[in-house]
Design brief:
The complex is a heterodimer of chains A (about 500) and B (about 350). Chain A is of the alpha+beta class and about 500 residues long. Helices cover about 35% and strands about 20% of the residues of chain A. By secondary structure, chain B is α+β, with helices and mostly antiparallel strands. Chain B has three domains: about 170 residues, 2-Layer Sandwich (Uridine Diphospho-n-acetylenolpyruvylglucosamine Reductase, domain 3); about 60 residues, Alpha-Beta Plaits (2-Layer Sandwich); about 60 residues. The chains are: A alpha+beta (about 500), B alpha+beta (about 350).
C-alpha cells in the first residue's frame, strides 16, 4: 500500500539532489506556472523544479517514480491546449535552463540542442553557416524545441518543409524508469521500430526529452511574396487547388476571410483590399531560376481563377509588410472584441468553402462572430470565435460553437488538431475522432512506457469515461498571455 | 469489390484464438528481407484498389494489396510522384509491402523516407480488430503516431489494410550529371552541394564516378549543370531505376549485401569488399564476406548501424537493439499483437 508523501518531505527529497534555488514551493513562486497559454485552466503544482542538467533530471525522475509523483514537463509554456497545465498532486518540471546549443554540424547539416533551446535560437545559431531550422510555429521567438517535439508543432511553412516530425533526426529521452533511450541519429534511419516518430507529438506522456538533433536546411536563394484578392471564398479555394494541381508547392499559402482582413486593415494598415471576400498570401522560395518560373505560373493561375487583384511584392520591405498584416491578424481581431477563442483543426482543402459556410451558419445559430485564418496550403484552419466573457453564458456558448466546429472538421475527413495538440482542451473531441479500441491502444502504448501513469497524466488521450470539457484559447480584454509573441 | 477486410480479420481472429503464428504475404517481392520465419501464410494480395485519389489534395489512399505499379501509374497520369521513390524488387510489389519494409529509393535524399510520406494507416491488429490512425491531411497531431510506427515494422505490429500517402508534383525536368572523383571527394562534394539550395534529388557513387540527379524547372537544371560541371549521362530514368531495383552491376553477385546507414558526411569506411553509396553518403552498400561483428563495429564507430540486406550469413539480420530499446519493443509488440502471432521473429529472434 503506497503511503503518500507530504509536500514538505517531498521538497526535502529534492533539496538533497538539487541546489536550493531550483526547488520552488511557495505559492507566489508557483503562480507563474499555474497555466500555459490556455489560461482558462489553472492549477498550482505542489512544487516547481528547475534542473540545469541531465543528472539533476535523472535524480528528480528517480524520486518521482519512487513516491509516485506526477511530472508535468514545461518549456516556455506557450502551449495553446494546456499541455503544460500542472497536476494537483505533481511537480512542474521546468526545462528552460537546459538551453544550450551543443553542436552545429554543417557537414551533416544538423543541430544538436538541449530541450530548453528556443525554436528561433536554433536558426539563429545556424544562420552564419547559411542554414536554418524550418518548422516555424508562430510562437517561435519563445517556444522551446522540447515543446515543439511534444506537440509535433507546425507553422506556416509545413506544406513544403514538413512538421517537427519531418525535421527531427535523433532524440535522447529519459523514461520514467530512469532509462536513457537514444532514438535515431545523424544517419537517415534506425534499426527496429520507429520509436522516434512515436515519441514526437506524444505531449510529454511517454518520456522526457534530454537532447535533440534536428535537420538543418540551406537557406533558399530568394523568396517572393504574392497577394491575391477574391470576391468569393469559393474562388480563393479553387485558386489554392489550382496552384497545387499545377505542380507548385508554395513555401507558405495563407487565406484570410473578410472579417480578418478588415480587422487587420484597421489595426496596422498593411494595405489589404478591405472589400475582398478573401485574400491569399503566397510565399514561394527556391533556387533563383526555379523561383522565377514559379512566380509567373502562380500569377497566371491566380488570374485564371478570377482574382480581382494580384500583387507581387517588389522588394523585401513590401514582402514584410504583406506578412506583417497576416501576423497581426490575431491581435487585430482582439481589438474587435473583449475576448476570443482560437480553434485549431485541419480539413481537406476542397471542403474549405463548405466548412466556412457551415461555420457562418453556426455563427448565426449561436449569435457570435467567427473570423477565419486558414493555412490554405495544408488545410489547417484557425476559426476565431469573438465573444465577451462578461456577458452571462457567452463563454459557454462560445465553447459549444467551438466544439461543433471541431466535430465538423472530423466529419469532412479532417482532424481536430493540426498543430496545437490535444492537451486538456480537446479531450472530448478525441472521443469523436477515435474509436474505443483505438483509444485503448493509445492507453496501452502509454502503459508500455509509463505503467504508473506519472508523465503528464490526464492529457491528450481521454479515458473512456471522460465527460465534456472546455476547449480553446481565451483572450480576456486584450490581455493575451505572452503578449510580445506574434500570434498568427 | 476488392475489400477483404472482414475475411482477413476473421482469419486473424481465428489465429488469435488458436495462438497460431501467421506469415503475412502480399506481392512477395521482398521475401528476402528480414529473418526467415516459418508460419501459416496469411495472404492480403487480393485486398486491392485505389480508394481515393485527389491530385489537388496531394494524397492517395489505396488498399494494401494494390500494386505499386498501379499506384505509380495513376499518380504519374496526373503529373505527380511518390516522394520516397520506393524499390519494387518485382512486378507484384504492393503498397503494403512498401510500408511494411520501409525502404525508400534514391529520391529519399531530398523528398523524405517512406514514413515521411505516410498520412494515415488502417490496420488489423493481432486480435483482428480494425484500427485507424492518422488520416489524409498532413497536419494532424491527434493521438500518438501509431501510423508511422507501422512503417518498417515488417508486419509485426499489424496487418496493413489501407494507407494514405502524401504525393509531390513530378519535377518538370530531370537530368543527371556525372563527375570522376575518389571516394572521399565524392562524400565531400555531395554534402557541400546539399548545403546549397540546388534541387538535387538523388546521388550515387560507384567507386569511380559520382552521379548527381537534378530535378526542377528546365532553367534551374541548366544553371545547376554549370555549377556541377560534369558530363550529362544518357537515359537518366534507366540509370536510377537500376540503382533503385538493384539491377546495377554492383549488386550482381552472391557475396552478402550489407546495408550500412551512417551520417552522410562520414569518411570512407574501413571495410573489406566493394561498395557503392547513395543519399549523399548516408547509405553505403557493401558486398562483403567480412564477419558481421567487424561490419557492425565499424558502423557503430561512425554513429551508424548495419543490416544484412541479402545473403544468409547471420540470423541477426537487423542491427541489435540496446537493452532498454528491446524492452520497449517487446512491450509495444504485446500492445498491438498480444498473442505474438503476426510475423513473429521476423525482425529479431526475441520479438
Amino acid at each position: 500500500m503506497h503511503t503518500p508523501i507530504s509536500t514538505a518531505d517531498l521538497a526535502n527529497q529534492f533539496y538533497k539532489v538539487l541546489p536550493k534555488d531550483a526547488v520552488l514551493d511557495k505559492d507566489e513562486q508557483l503562480r507563474p506556472y499555474e497555466c500555459d497559454a490556455l489560461t482558462a485552466y489553472r492549477q498550482l503544482p505542489r512544487l516547481a523544479l528547475l534542473p540545469s542538467n541531465i543528472e539533476e533530471i535523472q535524480a528528480i525522475v528517480k524520486i518521482c517514480k519512487e513516491h509516485k509523483i506526477p511530472i508535468v514537463a514545461r518549456g516556455a509554456g506557450t502551449s495553446l491546449s494546456g499541455g503544460a497545465l500542472p497536476h494537483a498532486d505533481g511537480i512542474l518540471l521546468n526545462l528552460a535552463k537546459l538551453n544550450k546549443v551543443i553542436e552545429i554540424d554543417t557537414y551533416n547539416r544538423t543541430a544538436t540542442i538541449q530541450p530548453g533551446v528556443r525554436n528561433l535560437a536554433i536558426s539563429e545559431a545556424a544562420k552564419p553557416h547559411g542554414l536554418y531550422y524550418a518548422p516555424d510555429p508562430s510562437s517561435q521567438i519563445a517556444c522551446t524545441i522540447g515543446g515543439n517535439i511534444a506537440e509535433n508543432s507546425g507553422g506556416v511553412h509545413c506544406l513544403k518543409y514538413g512538421l517537427t516530425v519531418h525535421n527531427i533526426l535523433a532524440l535522447k529521452i529519459l523514461t520514467i524508469d530512469g532509462e536513457i533511450l537514444e532514438l535515431g541519429g545523424k544517419n537517415f534511419d534506425s534499426s527496429g521500430f520507429d520509436l522516434l516518430s512515436l515519441m514526437i507529438g506524444s505531449e510529454g506522456m511517454l518520456g522526457i526529452t534530454l537532447e535533440a538533433t534536428v535537420k538543418l536546411l540551406p537557406y533558399p536563394h530568394d523568396k517572393k511574396v504574392l497577394l491575391a484578392a477574391f470576391d468569393q471564398i469559393q474562388k480563393a479555394g479553387d485558386a489554392v487547388n489550382g496552384i497545387i494541381s499545377n505542380g507548385v508547392i508554395p513555401a507558405g499559402l495563407e487565406m484570410l476571410d473578410q472579417l480578418t482582413i478588415q480587422a487587420t486593415e484597421l489595426y496596422c494598415s498593411p494595405g489589404y483590399p478591405s472589400n475582398a471576400a478573401a485574400i491569399l498570401i503566397c510565399e514561394l522560395d527556391g533556387f533563383d531560376e526555379e523561383l522565377e518560373t514559379q512566380v509567373q505560373l502562380v500569377k497566371k493561375i491566380l488570374i485564371e481563377h478570377q482574382a480581382i487583384e494580384v500583387r507581387i511584392a517588389k522588394d523585401k520591405q513590401e514582402a514584410e509588410l504583406l506578412w506583417l498584416g497576416r501576423k497581426a491578424s490575431f491581435p487585430a481581431l482582439g481589438n474587435l472584441t473583449p475576448d476570443y477563442y482560437c480553434m485549431d483543426g485541419t480539413i481537406p482543402r476542397k471542403y474549405l468553402a463548405h466548412v466556412l459556410e457551415s461555420i457562418s451558419n453556426l455563427s448565426t445559430k449561436y449569435g457570435l462572430r467567427v473570423a477565419n485564418v486558414f493555412h490554405a496550403g495544408d488545410g489547417n484552419l484557425h476559426p476565431v470565435i469573438l465573444y465577451d466573457a462578461n456577458v452571462i453564458g457567452e463563454l459557454e456558448t462560445a465553447e459549444k460553437l467551438g466544439g461543433e466546429i471541431l466535430e465538423l472538421c472530423v466529419k469532412v475527413g479532417g482532424t481536430i488538431t493540426g498543430e496545437h495538440g490535444v492537451g486538456v482542451e480537446k479531450l472530448n473531441q478525441m472521443c469523436v475522432q477515435f474509436s474505443e479500441t483505438e483509444l485503448s491502444t493509445f492507453h496501452a502504448i502509454k502503459a508500455a512506457f509509463d505503467e504508473d501513469g506519472l508523465l503528464n497524466p490526464g492529457k491528450a488521450i481521454p479515458t473512456l469515461h471522460r465527460c465534456a470539457e472546455l476547449g480553446a484559447m481565451h483572450v480576456h480584454h486584450g490581455k493575451l498571455p505572452h503578449p510580445d509573441l506574434p500570434r498568427f | 469489390m476488392s475489400d477483404y477486410r472482414d475475411e482477413i480479420a476473421s482469419k486473424i481472429q481465428d489465429a488469435f484464438k488458436q495462438k497460431q503464428a501467421l506469415q503475412i504475404k502480399s506481392g512477395n517481392t521482398k521475401h528476402f528481407y528480414g529473418r526467415n520465419i516459418q508460419a501459416e501464410t496469411l495472404s492480403v494480395a487480393n485486398h486491392t484498389d485505389i480508394i481515393e485519389y485527389e491530385p489537388s489534395e496531394l494524397y492517395i489512399t489505396a488498399r494494401s494489396g494494390t500494386s505499386l505499379i498501379e499506384i505509380e501509374q495513376a499518380v504519374a497520369d496526373q503529373n505527380q510522384i511518390l516522394p520516397c521513390e520506393p524499390p519494387h524488387f518485382g512486378t507484384t510489389a504492393t503498397l503494403g509491402g512498401m510500408v511494411a519494409c520501409g525502404l525508400a529509393g534514391p529520391r529519399r535524399v531530398n523528398a523524405g523516407n517512406v514514413r515521411d510520406c505516410i498520412l494515415g494507416t488502417e490496420i488489423l491488429n493481432g486480435k483482428g480488430e480494425l484500427l485507424r490512425f492518422g488520416g489524409k491531411v498532413m497536419k494532424n497531431v491527434a493521438g500518438y503516431d501509431v501510423s508511422r510506427l507501422m512503417c518498417g515494422a515488417l508486419g509485426t505490429l499489424g496487418v496493413l489494410m489501407s494507407v494514405s500517402l502524401r504525393l509531390l508534383p513530378k519535377p518538370p525536368c530531370e537530368q543527371t550529371i556525372a563527375i570522376a572523383v575518389d571516394s572521399d571527394t565524392a562524400i565531400n562534394k555531395m554534402n557541400q552541394w546539399a548545403s546549397t539550395p540546388m534541387p538535387i534529388s538523388a546521388t550515387f557513387y560507384d567507386g569511380n564516378e559520382l552521379y548527381i540527379r537534378l530535378s526542377s524547372s528546365a532553367t534551374a537544371v541548366k544553371a545547376c549543370k554549370k555549377i556541377i560541371d560534369g558530363h550529362q549521362i544518357e537515359e537518366n530514368d534507366i540509370f536510377w531505376n537500376s540503382i533503385k531495383e538493384q539491377t546495377h552491376d554492383f549488386f550482381n553477385s552472391d557475396i552478402p549485401l550489407w546495408r550500412i546507414s551512417v551520417p552522410p558526411n562520414t569518411e570512407t569506411l574501413s571495410l573489406p569488399g566493394k561498395s557503392v553509396m547513395e543519399w549523399n553518403g548516408a547509405l553505403r552498400w557493401y558486398k562483403s564476406d567480412a564477419n558481421e561483428n567487424t561490419i557492425r563495429s565499424e558502423a557503430e564507430r561512425v554513429g551508424g548501424h548495419a543490416n544484412l540486406f541479402r545473403g544468409n550469413v547471420t540470423q541477426q539480420v537487423f542491427h541489435p537493439l540496446t537493452e532498454p530499446s528491446m524492452k520497449l519493443h517487446k512491450k509495444i509488440k504485446l500492445v498491438l499483437d498480444p498473442a505474438s502471432i503476426l510475423n513473429p521473429a521476423k525482425m529479431f529472434a526475441e520479438l
